[in-house]
């Protein structure tokens, strides 16, 4: 196991008590970078930025919280870091995470678990995999933090720490310089203590318009234009807005007080003039299973390059060739969860299992996309609707088609079904139970849709009432009073 590295910056007030920063030697990394610093834009405003450890920076190592990349300096900087530096960002540190983004609690890290500052003893999950980024903004160590979200990794830590976590549409923010986990799902997004700084960066500074020719999945100019034309970033007033409440999200595992908060949030929006519309997204039930087939399949392919030759560490048998070299590098370099995903993915892509797992999961993914298309007013700008004629899919799978007419502007749902669990509870959990935390976040990922997690109550309040029975919450979910 790599020794825990020191935080590279001295500007962080919380001194890494919550193990949210990882770092390295600023000077070594600087000298290896070939990325010139971007020139400041005229509208640049200074702000501090924490960067998840799977996003390449010029000045710090990029290790994905993995032993296999220990001390890996990136030869270039991610486009998004350059874009933010041009807008005034100063990078204050790299943040701890689940290794290669695989996990929901930021515990699968070579640096140890991230701790949630909302709990008195810190022994509560900060959510994952971008837990370090969420904690960095929560503690005020950074104004903005960059995270990645493949199936919920920005939104879940935001929910568990009481911060705002925004995952853009697939392809909107460049992934150039971001270490891939599952390419067809990976997105880069932002965390902050409030909506405004995120809104300002994305919309006011025009980040959403910038195509990156270095990222083949970056949305083309024409698609971006189509998006802007079909939607107005500044909505006139809530009375013209329909908000969908997906009935399938009211699952039995949902904690009663989270259900109450969901109802209270909906009631608040209704009192401000929005129309609430019950909607059905019937494929939601299958989305989690499909995600946990597709994401490991893509991961098993992506992680093949960490073989001790192209990337990765060399062990004692470094002079050996072939299998010994690979198995030593991968056996000692990857953590348990990453190995589990590689095995899962390799199996579901094998010729004996492909039809039953990978192909089925792709079909479910299309159904999830189609569910959203049926309820949203706007077309999904990421693809032409006629590309997917799946009207007979529900019939083919025997699933009931209960979807309503096209009518909704937004969908409102809880981000997670439970409060953040204690770290010892998580450690005792089965793998499948741990995957359950993502049940509400993966559908948007499978469909490539944008999503944002916003706290409805100071998170300390939630922590205090966890494990209690249903509590009738006052309907003041719009308030932003200080948690302290
Ligand atoms: N928890 C999910 C997983 O482990 C999502 C991770 C992510 O979004 N990077 O795959």
Sum up the structure in keywords.
nucleotide-binding; 3-stranded parallel β-sheet; 7-stranded mixed β-sheet; Amidase signature (AS) enzymes; alpha/beta; 484 residues; mitochondrion; EC 6.3.5.7; 10% strand; binds glutamine
Report on this model:
The chain is an alpha/beta fold and 484 residues long. It has a domain at 21-235 and 442-465: Amidase signature (AS) domain (Amidase signature (AS) enzymes, Alpha-Beta Complex), CATH 3.90.1300. The protein contains 16 helices and 10 strands. It has helices at residues 26-32, 79-86, 131-138, 155-161, 195-204, 221-230, 256-271, 284-302, 323-333, 336-348, 355-375, 393-397, 423-428, 431-435, 442-447, 459-465; strands at 21-22, 47-52, 89-95, 144-149, 164-167, 187-192, 242-246, 275-279, 410-411, 451-453. The strands form 2 sheets. Strands 1-3-2-4-6-5-10 form a 7-stranded mixed sheet, with helices on both faces. Strands 8-7-9 form a 3-stranded parallel sheet. Helix 7 links the parallel strand 7 and strand 8. Helix 3 runs parallel beside helix 4 (155-161). Glutamine binds next to strand 4. Glutamine binds at residues 101-104, 129, 148-153, 181, 295, 438.
